[in-house]
Amino acid sequence: MKPLINENSLLALEKLSKPCRLCPWECMADRTSPQLGKCRSGIDIKISSYNIHTGEEPPISGTAGSGTIFFTNCSLACKFCQNYPISQLGNGKHLSIEQLADVMLELQERNAHNINLVTPSHMVHGIVRALTSARENGLKLPVVYNCGGYESVNTLRLLEGFVDIYMPDAKYSDNAIALKYSGIEDYWDVNKAALIEMQRQAGKLQMDSSGVAVKGLLIRHLVLPGRISGSEKILRFIAEEISTDTYMSIMAQYHPAHRSSEYPELSRKISAEEYEKIIDLAEKLGLKNCWIQDL
pLDDT digits over 175-207, tens only? Predict the structure, then answer.
């Protein structure tokens, strides 16, 4: 059985949630009251769904699928979010700690390769309790922390030994752009520090003999139309400050969603030329472990 996260870390995470400083907003909301924080969430765990997902990157989905749990709400407010009914509207249901632990064990029984926590940052105080309970009752799967990349380093440090695989976004390399499209004024600064901490904890992505990830860092980057996301600067940072061995998923799947129609520059898909330029740059920078998509 995997070692459990220590009680001091559990207590520290719970303390950070009251008043709330779990994410970089540090909005100090009393989430045990009707007051909601920047993530629009109370203190309880709330999920929209859970299932076996086969559409993740190859080492995450593998052959049997990833055991995904989608947590509702988000500390970001992306105007183009493709999951906005979950992230922005908060559609979902409340679960107790033990119910969430049972979900994790059920996904293991259904032969998932991992427990994939999707947008977990604002609920980690409860998630770690559920994970500890699930491990005490036989959970052995690696844990994937699938997040938007806007993460508190203080919180991440408390997750060491709890998370096996970090799968963050690197969305923008310009704080002004992040503020315009996601409502975050310091995204790039925070994201860089978070990626460095994740790399320190997990290191290069490691896979078993069947090609399924067991530990490490996998960074996702969604290419936006018109070079909005600042992909070039992101790739240079990863190559120069993280490692050219870093595994990356460079995604071409952007399509207008949610409030994209309010921004003409977001109202179209990316072109083949735009995407190919980013792929070519990744190769020139020596980023050799990249997944690419067909347009």
Answer: 999 999 999 999 999 999 999 999 999 999 999
How many angstroms separate the CA atoms of 185 and 191, rounded? 12
Task: Please check whether residue 166 is in contact with residue 200, taking contact to mean a CB–CB distance below 8 angstroms.
Answer: no
pLDDT in tens, 60-78: 999 999 999 999 999 999 9
Structure tokens at 180: 């315009």
Q: Distance between CA atoms of 170 and 175, rounded to whole angstroms?
A: 12
The residue with tokens 């005490």 is 136
Q: Which fold has domain 10-24+44-292?
A: TIM Barrel (3.20.20)
> Do 153 and 166 contact (CB within 8 A), yes or no?
no
This prediction has a pTM of 0.96
- 4 has pLDDT over 80: no
* Domain layout of the chain by residue ranges: 10-24+44-292
Q: Among candidates 121, 113, 240, 100, which has minimal Cα distance to 173?
A: 240
Which amino acid, one-letter code, is at 163? V
| The pLDDT of residue 3 | 47
